[in-house]
Specification:
Cytochrome p450-Terp, domain 2, three-stranded antiparallel beta sheet, binds N-hydroxyamidocarboxymethyldethia coenzyme *A
Amino acid sequence: MESLKEKFARIALPQADKVKELAREHGDKVLGEVTIGNVLSGMKGVVSLLTVTSKLDPEEGIRFRGYSIPELHKNLPKLHPEGEPLPEGLFYLMLMGELPDKAQVDMVSRELNMRSQVPKHVFDVIDAMPLTAKPMTIFSAAIIAMATESRFQKAYREGIGKKDIWEPAFEDVMNLVARLPRIASYIYRRLYHQNMQIEADHYLDWAGNFAHMMGYDNEEVKRLFRMYLYIHADHEGGNVSAHTTHLVGSALSNPYYAFGAAMAGLAGPLHGLANQEVIRWLQKMIEEIGYVCDSKERIREYVVKTIESGRVVPGYGHAVLRKTDPRFLVQREFALKYLPNNPLIQAVGCLYEVVPEVLKTYQKIKNPWPNVDAHSGALLLAYGIKEYDFYTVLFGVSRALGVLSQLVWDRVFGLPIERPSSQTLEWFLEQAEKK
Ligand code: HAX
């Protein structure tokens, strides 16, 4: 039977010729122009990356290989007919570009299981960290520590050619995705459950086993994990974690380095850390104004106070999206199905009714709607996962599926080292004077 790697090679390698031909035959085609505004707004709107795994539409939200979240919900294989798609299925879709059937998803689950053994020294690195260290600090360090295992790095040392280097990249990526749930759950149990570790259950799927190793064997939590780990997996190429993986990988740094760096980026409050900030902000609001659904006027005042003191309202706004994030809506649906009477879930709903209306009154804010992070913390908290410093690690485990799939494609395409040009302030001022 054809292995995942053989199948990937059969699908991916012919695509490399298309990219080479694009560069050779159409390299001088103009795609758009860059304004001073583009540069000073963090390159928003400037097309400068080739990403095959997903594409974000400002109005509609994310499509993974052309499929929207509702379409994936319908078409990706599930464990239970009425349940959530298996994240392994999305991983397969992003890697191969085609929807898997259940047997193909099972094959991914089996392969990840086989590769899931984490080397002992990685646990030693985690154990050496103080208990006061933030989970994302430990998570990034553990990922980088695992670079001792890199087949990519070894193959490069041994002189592998550019054409073949995707192969050890594929090996590293599969090993990383396989091992992240073990690393993450080990950190969780060490920090919050007296280091009482739980062994993997290799009969479970990737997400179900992750919930199990964290200590949550309730079937609803496993469903939550499947949903959570598939909706956070990718958001096209320009977001900080995806772009970092691509950028660091472009120096032919090994996939462990590239993903470890990406996790340092995800740990920023304007990116993945927002899922913790939302809960911190909400809890402070509750302390100050009482239960938020009791008074919409007081929510309004609290939001205004947040903005007027120079801070952002976490979980709201987006660099690309201009509508409610469909990933927020999937979580809302899940929450209302399983936890309609939970006060936190209700609080998220009350904020959704008020916050966008307040944000709309600030002209500078381009998107007043909630993003993925506005909901995830409340769901985790509702199931008793109350250690919100850890939430960004969960996001990181999921994000691996998309950014690491793309990293293998980067090596298939033979994309070069990324090296945009920069200019001095004097140069920009000169351009501004020009007619
Ligand atoms: N609250 C208050 N002010 C906001 C805001 C919010 N939620 N969203 C944007 N703004 C402000 C910006 O800070 C900026 O202000 P200044 O001009 O004074 O600097 C102005 O509005 C214009 O920003 P923008 O163009 O609308 O948004 P950006 O593309 O610059 O930033 C962010 C996008 C997501 C970083 C931004 O909306 C934000 O800070 N949101 C809150 C943090 C958050 O939820 N981050 C998670 C985003 C999703 C994600 O990546 N998850 O991982």
